[in-house]
Amino acid sequence: MKGVRVRRMCGRWSVATVLRACDAEHMTIRGAVLVLIAVLAACPALAQERRCGWIHNPTPANWWLVDRDGRWDIMSQGGPRPAGMDNIPDLTERHWVRTNGYYGYGCACMSVVTDARTQSIRRIGSVQQLPLERCSADRALPPP
Question: Structure pTM?
Answer without folding.
Answer: 0.70
